[in-house]
Amino acid sequence: MRTKLQTNIIFVFLLVLLLNILSGCTKDNTSSQWTGGTVTDNEGNVYLTVPIGAQTWMAENLRSIKLNDGTPIALVTDNNTWSNLTTPAYCYYGNDSTSYKYKYGALYNWYTVDTKKLCPTGWHVPTVGDWTILKTYLGIDSLAGGKLKEASTANWFSPNLYATNATKFTALPGGYRFYNGSFNNSGYSGNLWSSTANSTAASWYFYLIYSDGKLGQNSYDNTYGFSVRCIKD
Q1: Which residues are 132's β-sheet partners?
Q2: Which of 7, 137, 199, 210 could form a disulfide with 53 if both were Cys (CB 3.0 to 4.6 A apart)?
Q3: For residue 178, which phi and psi values (nearest 5 degrees)?
């Protein structure tokens, strides 16, 4: 017959075992279990990286406020100033660095991308060709974007359809800054620049949205503020 002490010991053992199992189930790619790599920019910001097919991508949005040669990027908060820019600039969603710098990174106009010095040395802002290789690897279907999106509604609005994050790319809905300086779509969409121009005034970007699983492509004015993910050279 078990004593009360023996019963208590068994109960504690089972409780600890259950907690360990649950803890293991909830770890994500920012934990000590991360098996990808890292890259550090010239300000000391460290980013998780992940191999996807033959490519290696950042698994976080860029948040650098300097080019890789040390040149500061202008922080522009005023709407009118932003809308008239033809030079590199960055901002944070809603001009709120406290809430968004480490969550979604910075939003950059395309003039910043066009410097070709935005990413850490040995990395670059992906071209349309780079994005196309990624889409091809993922299957060029309606679920390709879902394989890139963070698989929860912690940041994405519900229903965040088809999100599996199978690649560990962990795309986030950082929204964007409109050409007139206003902010839109945080929680609804993630918008990532390419380095490929479409015209003298507009360039290509790729997007993911909460309501489907595709990786879309579009072209908008260079004064828009979008997120950036770098790819290894």
Answers
A1: none
A2: 137
A3: -70, 160
- 65-106, pLDDT tens digit by residue? 999 999 999 999 999 999 999 999 999 999 999 999 999 999
Q: What is the DSSP string of 5-22?
A: HHHHHHHHHHHHHHHHHH
Scan for tokens 């196309």, then name that residue.
132
Q: Report the relative pairing of strands 216-221 and 107-108 from DSSP bridges.
A: unpaired
Rounded to whole angstroms, how far apart are CA atoms 34 and 114?
32
Residue 35: predicted pLDDT: 62
For residue 11, what pLDDT is reported? 43
Domain locations along the chain: 47-232
* pLDDT of 159 over the 60 cut: yes
DSSP 99-125: HHHHHH--EE-HHHHTTS-SSPTTEEP
